[in-house]
Design brief:
The chain is α/β, with parallel strands linked by helices. Helix content is about 25%, strand content about 25%. The protein folds into 3 domains: about 5-65, no CATH class; about 80-180, Translation factors (Elongation Factor Tu (Ef-tu), domain 3, Beta Barrel), CATH 2.40.30.10; about 190-330, Rossmann fold (3-Layer(aba) Sandwich), CATH 3.40.50. The chain is built from 10 helices and 13 strands. A 7-stranded antiparallel sheet has the order 4-3-7-1-2-6-5, covered by helices on one side. A 6-stranded parallel sheet has the order 11-10-9-8-12-13, sandwiched between helices. A hairpin with a 2-residue loop joins strand 5 and strand 6. The longest helix has 25 residues, at about 5-25. It is globular, with a radius of gyration of 23 Å. Bound molecules: flavin-adenine dinucleotide (FAD). The site of flavin-adenine dinucleotide has 25 residues, from strand 4, strand 6, helix 5 and helix 6. Flavin-adenine dinucleotide (FAD) binds near residues 114, 138, 150 and 157.
Length: about 325
């Protein structure tokens, strides 16, 4: 037997032995495993949007001698991820799956946070290369091994048009997560979410975080504006959440151009709609989050002020201010 083979078998043997010992030790508790904090911790990895469970020192992976799952992303350096599938959902909206380097890696994202994506599709530099274009995105889904983005491709969009042309096997650089607003269990009685177009992705991240946590009783109301019914992104997932949490989650779709017989909202966001569907501005323990295209942000909450490093949120303006909200009750994404 070669030295390499001996060393290899020795390592595997030790790991299997350690695993067997652990399994024996745990044998009495195999049935209890499913209900244990360990199992819950492993299960929480199945969806990074699920409430974070503490990772105890002894999990099946460490018993078996494997390292705990690694965060595939970094907030300080750009990391390339490989595109493993491309699925067009509508004529201009595409679902992209990016794999982590190892299929057991996790994203390391917390709610509510986003990622930055970049690609060399900006202006031409003197040396013939192109400048990077950087944009924020919130994955529609993150789990062990990969993340998914739903991207709306604008005809004149610098990065989204580039992303819309990506093919399986290409890579794109990501950096993050960048924390926006930590969502703490039962911190608020009611949370109102106002989304427009692809602004739904960060709002859905927050809704899932609250609704998928059985001990979080926060009530959530979502107002989601789209051009037409076909433009409603991630509708199946939203409707399923609403079906499963009828007393906790209220959804109102608002369409610029509604079809005949439409029973949801129509036209643009309005003070009347916001007053009717969101938590009351007078309720002391409520928060409203807003994410959408520039026109909607301006009308509903006023735009972000990215130049202002002290207060990038900018002042609260628009319809939310008109109906009595104050800046501390609102977070612009
Ligand atoms: C926290 C956060 C999360 C986001 N998550 C997503 C996401 O999951 N999926 C996604 O597709 N986008 C998301 N966006 C928007 C994304 O960052 C880009 O703004 C978008 O992809 C357009 O970039 P672009 O370079 O293609 O367009 P640009 O070259 O910047 O702009 C091209 C044209 O599109 C218009 N435009 C730019 N952004 C928008 C917009 N959001 N809605 C409507 N018109 C717009 C501009 O007015 C302009 O006319 C998110 C934004 C934020 C702030």
């Amino acid at each position: 037997m070669s030295a390499f083979r001996r060393a290899f078998l020795g390592t595997v043997g030790r790991r299997l032995h350690a695993g067997a010992l652990a399994a024996t030790g745990a044998a009495t508790g195999l049935a209890a495993y499913a209900a244990s904090p360990i199992a819950r911790s492993e299960a929480s990895l199945a969806d990074d949007n699920a409430p974070a469970a503490e990772h105890p020192p002894g999990t099946w992976s460490s018993w078996m001698g494997f390292a705990p799952p690694k965060a595939a992303l970094s907030a300080t350096e750009w990391r390339p991820l490989k595109l493993s599938s491309v699925t067009w959902k509508t004529h201009d909206t595409v679902l992209l799956r990016f794999n982590f380097p190892k299929y057991w890696d996790v994203s390391g994202m917390e709610c509510a946070s986003y990622l930055l994506a970049r690609a060399p599709c900006g202006s031409l530099r003197p040396d013939g290369t192109r400048a990077f274009v950087v944009r924020p995105y919130t994955p529609s889904h993150v789990t062990v091994g990969y993340l998914e983005l739903v991207i709306k491709v604008y005809e004149d969009g610098k990065l989204s048009r580039y992303i819309g042309n990506l093919r399986r096997g290409s890579t794109m650089d990501f950096r993050g997560p960048i924390m926006k607003l930590p969502i703490v269990e039962n911190q608020y009685e009611q949370v109102g979410l106002v989304a427009g177009g692809t602004g739904i992705t960060p709002m859905l991240q927050v809704a899932k975080r609250i609704l998928l946590n059985p001990t979080d009783t926060t009530k959530v109301s979502l107002l989601y504006g789209s051009k037409t019914e076909d433009d409603i992104i991630l509708r199946e997932e939203i409707d399923e959440l609403a079906r499963q949490h009828p007393d906790q989650f209220q959804v109102t779709y608002v369409l610029d151009t509604p079809p005949a017989g439409w029973t949801g909202g129509s036209g643009h966001m309005s003070t009347a709609l916001l007053r009717e569907k969101l938590p009351a501005a007078s309720s002391p323990n409520s928060k409203v989050l807003v994410c959408g295209p520039p026109g909607m942000m301006k009308a509903v909450s006023g735009p972000m002020d990215y130049e202002n490093k002290e207060n990038p949120q900018g002042p609260l303006e628009g319809q939310l201010k008109e109906i009595g909200f104050v800046a501390s009750q609102v977070c612009k994404f």
